[in-house]
Amino acid sequence: MVNHATLGCLLLGLAVSVELRSDEHANDIEELVGRVRAVGPEAARSAEARAARDALARCGPDAIAALLVGMDTPDTVAANWLRSAFDEVVDRAMKADPASLPTAELRRYVLDASRQGRARRLALDVLTKVDPTAPANLIPALLDDPEFRRDAVAVALAAGDRAVKDQDEAAALTAFDRAFDAAREVDQVRSAAAKLKSLGRDVSIVEHLGFVVDWSVIGPFNGPEYKTFATVFPPEREIKLDATYNAQAGRVSWRSHRTLDEFGTVDLVKAVAATDDAAAYAFTVIESPTARDVQIRCGADDNIQVWLNGKRVFAKEEWQNGTRLDRFIAPIQLLAGANDLLVKVCQGPKYRDPGMANPWSLQLRICDSSGRGIRFTTTSRDARSEKQP
Questions:
Q1: Mean pLDDT of 57-78
Q2: d(CA 160, CA 155)
Q3: Do 2 and 28 contact (CB within 8 A), yes or no?
Q4: Which tops the pLDDT comparison, 262 or 47?
Q5: Would you state the pLDDT for residue 45?
Q6: What is the dihedral of CA 127, 129, 131, 133, to 10 degrees?
Q7: What span, in angstroms and rounded, lies between the C-alpha atoms of 86 and 376?
Q8: Angstrom distance (rounded) from CA 103 to CA 120
Q9: Which of 191, 232, 238, 318 maximizes the CB count within 10 A of its CB?
């Protein structure tokens, strides 16, 4: 049965339809939402969309679910218009009768990981106004949720801290284990690992996030003037780990390098040379137990190109760019067995301020779509020669 608030909304929507387009009738809330979402590039249909938004803003709380669904769009203009109507509907319901808010629909939307995060958080905010216990009841179970993962990890870390205070080591270990397993961001990963270590349990951040730490490196190959990104140096034509080449400072050859950084960052100034206007290469072989679709997540100072089994799978020319976790993400397909992985990192010209150091670095990890590192091993295959397509 349609309540009076919804009926008023629908009638107003119908009036809007007649006024704007006589051959079209906005006979339900979803149609009004659709009119707002059809606002078009640069608000081309803004008059019609605004009228529909105003009609929605006069609706009762039974329009909330449709408004949330409507806000699940990459079109920020339409989403913002629907958000303004949503806020008016919620504010009016909170003043008149908070119990009229559709808590079951809000809860379902919060838990629907297929929806966009900003709208899900909005739904949780509204739900919390009616049920202040909602975050405590819903968040802890969302450790694998793309939007609420960080919140759930924070809850697990806090639970572990309470257990430590209560001298319940078993409960603390369980909570910190859960936090570490789910954590994907630097601060939470580091915090969970440190808390576990304080209780006598060592964990590997490198393995957890899938960092590649064992490489063969070569360079520097000279530029100059930002030309190194496009210049094809010998490692792009062949991988021959016993070869030497003419380069910036004379003859260069491949050498093994293992980074000890807990987040897999390779300092190329130390691994290769302190230099400017140059390129270096890092090579390894990824041994995968099965064929699988995964992701490469990487960053570099200054820019980066990545080849997998002779095919370039990622390239980003961006000078004076710092290395940071998951700066770039690219899908790749690993073969069962050996996979050649070659990375090129370019170093830009020296800074104008001679007192500033010119950092040069690389960070790369292999993970699933959630950001969890996959299982793999690396080999060097010294003296191996194989042409790159």
A1: 93
A2: 9
A3: no
A4: 262
A5: 72
A6: 100
A7: 48
A8: 13
A9: 191
Instruction: Give the distance from CA 85 to its chain's centroid.
Output: 30
Q: What is the pLDDT of residues 229-273, one digit of tens each?
A: 999 999 999 999 999 998 877 899 999 999 999 999 999 999 999
pLDDT at 349: 79
Burial of 122 (0-12, 13-18, 19+ CB in 10 A): buried
Cα(4)–Cα(185) distance, integer angstroms: 48
Contact 382, 241 (CB under 8 A): yes
φ/ψ region of 255 (left if φ > 0, alpha if ψ in -120 to 50, else beta) reads beta
Average pLDDT, the chain: 88
**Which residues, in sequence order, are CB contacts of 317 under 8 Å at separation 6+?**
229, 303
H helices of the chain, where? 4-20, 29-37, 46-57, 64-71, 76-96, 103-110, 117-130, 134-138, 149-165, 169-182, 186-198, 205-209, 234-237, 268-271
Residue 192 has pLDDT above 90, yes or no: yes
Q: What is the pLDDT of residues 149-175, one digit of tens each?
A: 999 999 999 999 999 999 999 999 999
Per-position b or e across 296-318, b if 16+ CB within 10 A of its CB: bbbbbbbbbbbbbbeeeebebee
Q: Are 109 and 123 in contact (CB under 8 A)?
A: yes
Torsion of CA 270, 274, 280, 281, to 10 degrees: 0
**pTM for the complete prediction?**
0.84
